[in-house]
Automatic annotation (TrEMBL):
Stretches the record annotates as Disordered: 21-41, 79-110, 126-145, 168-187
Transmembrane parts of this sequence: none
Protein name: Meiosis-specific nuclear structural protein 1
Basic and acidic residues biased stretches: 96-110
């Protein structure tokens, strides 16, 4: 009968459409899960990079803190040594002591200022690193090149500041030796 054949054809067509819709729904579900997995993976990578930047900043701050403590202790020991040597000198006057205290105070302030400038410059570099890390997440080769250049900049800055501190210390030492020599000649 024609009606039976038509009904069977319609039923077969409906079943084929339902099967196709189920396949499409399944494919859409798999795609959605895959995209969610990719988004989660990317979020983890971003979090890991942020954590690395934070760890690097903490490490840098700790290193600076240690450097500052060592430098302060070294300055204190050097000051004590110089004071003891000056007390032992027989021809040491109150004016000489006042000049020495003023010179030492100025020297210590200069060293502290240089250390603070170094800390500020390192902090700026770290902030730039952090900012660039978040900006360049999609471009790892750009990020590596920027990091390499920044590390080179940091190293050059540290070497420059170390040289400046050394030269300032040498200058202070020369002035001190000249003043001590002048004080000995005046006695």
């Amino acid at each position: 009968c024609d009606d039976c054949e038509n009904a069977a054809a319609i039923r077969a067509k409906r079943e084929a459409l339902l099967a196709q819709k189920e396949r499409e729904d399944e494919e859409a579900r798999r795609n959605r899960e895959r995209l969610e997995d990719q988004a989660e993976l990317e979020r983890r990578r971003i979090e890991e990079r942020k954590q690395r930047v934070l760890d690097e900043q903490r490490r840098s701050i700790d290193e600076h803190r240690q450097y500052t403590q060592i430098e302060k202790e070294r300055l204190r020991i050097e000051q004590e040594r110089e004071d003891r040597a000056l007390r032992e000198a027989n021809n040491y006057t109150d004016d000489d002591a006042q000049r020495k205290r003023e010179r030492d105070r100025q020297y210590n302030e200069d060293v502290k200022r240089q250390i603070e400038e170094r800390r500020i410059q390192l902090q700026r570099i770290r902030e730039e690193e952090s900012r660039e890390t978040t900006q360049s997440l999609a471009l790892p080769e750009y990020d590596q090149e920027r990091r390499r250049l920044r590390d080179l900049q940091k190293q050059q800055l540290l070497e420059y500041l170390d040289k400046q501190i050394y030269e300032k210390k040498e200058q202070q030492r020369t002035i001190k030796e000249q003043e001590d020599e002048d004080a000995r000649r005046n006695v």
